[in-house]
Amino acid sequence: MRRWMAALLAAVAVFSGVGIASAAGAPVKANGETVRIQLIPGLLLSLPLYTAVDKGFFAEHGIKPELIPLATGPLGVQALLSNSIEVADTGTEVLMNAYAKQADIQLIAGLVKTNTFTVEVSKSVPLPHLMAGYPAVMQDLKGIIFGVSALGSSGQLYANALFADAKLDPSAVHYLAVGSSVTAYPALTTGKIQAYMATEPMQTLCKVLNSCVAVIDLRKGQGPSEIADTNGASLTFAAQRGYIASHPVAIKAFIQSIKDADNWMRNPKHFAELLALTESHIGLSTFPNHGALLSAMLRDNMQYFNASISRKAIVNLSRFLVKYKQIPNEIVPDKFVFSEAPQPAP
């Protein structure tokens, strides 16, 4: 009887599109649905998506991915809410802002387990407080032109928080929108801006080429505790609740694809192959020894990738956004995060 019941349950699972029983941790397989996913081109943070496509993890889980280039979080949210894409991926604070304005979305998986920003400063800027670290070094940034990807972006939000926590008026600097790290790097090294809220590949370019100075590294918990406490919910994937309800197998297959990509990326045995994959998508060919640059970037950052979402970090991030008047009220994780989104290991 037990063998007969097991066979029956397996057959039901296959015909329902779930594949073999997920209760045993086996793969979930969708039915070949096309899933349109936001892609922020050229950034290391997009590596889980590139990997899931190139290594066939989406295909293994029955998904036909269509990566849609959308360079900023607000563009991704706008596309998600207009049904131009099924999945957005961006800073969780951007998604929280939309949710607080009644966007019916849920987080389904994470990208990284820490904040991703560093404050990179031009070598032309005197830094007498550098050795004292944060918050003293913020004194050295008063009056400069501070680059951000876009005005009102996550970078500007975190920069304002750094100044405020250091008891400095954020208006002590002049913010200038210069695009992503790819376009901001020449702006920093040629003097158009004196500092930038950076992500990769700028962080590695500054470090390896010794062309700018990282004065604060939020990835490593430097800066205010209120920012460090949001680690575990910095960058996330989101979908509309209605789509999740109507396509539960596709969503679970998407989650497993991202988890598989994350596990594959962080396996040291795959480093050489990952390096080649990264080089095909993240163009640093205009820089000398670009292979060495990419290798250094991967070695520095693999530790930060993670598909889980910390519910505690969601609470802390919502408190942070309430404090800085980005949203009116704290957000309850049980409603904002999909129940089957990966969680950090205990």
In short:
The protein contains 15 helices and ten strands.
Report on this structure:
The protein is α/β, with parallel strands linked by helices. It folds into two domains: 31-114 and 231-336, D-Maltodextrin-Binding Protein, domain 2, CATH 3.40.190; 118-228, Periplasmic binding protein-like II (D-Maltodextrin-Binding Protein, domain 2), CATH 3.40.190. It contains 15 helices and ten strands. The strands form three sheets. The protein has a five-stranded mixed β-sheet, sandwiched between helices. A three-stranded antiparallel β-sheet has the order 3-10-4, with helices on both faces. The chain has a two-stranded parallel sheet with strand order 1-2. β6 (145-148), α6 (154-165) and β7 (174-177) form a beta-alpha-beta unit. α2 (47-54) crosses α11 and α7 packs parallel to α8. The radius of gyration is 21 Å and the shape is globular. Mean pLDDT is 90; it is low at 1-24.
Which homologous superfamily in CATH is the superfamily of the largest domain?
A: Periplasmic binding protein-like II
Quick check: average pLDDT? 90
What structural category characterises the helix and strand content?
A: alpha/beta
| CATH C-level label of the largest domain | Alpha Beta
The helical percent reads: 40-55%
Low-confidence segments, ≥5 residues, pLDDT <50?
1-24
Give the terminus-to-terminus CA distance.
37 Å
Q: List the strand order in the largest sheet.
A: 7-6-8-5-9
Largest sheet: 5 strands, mixed
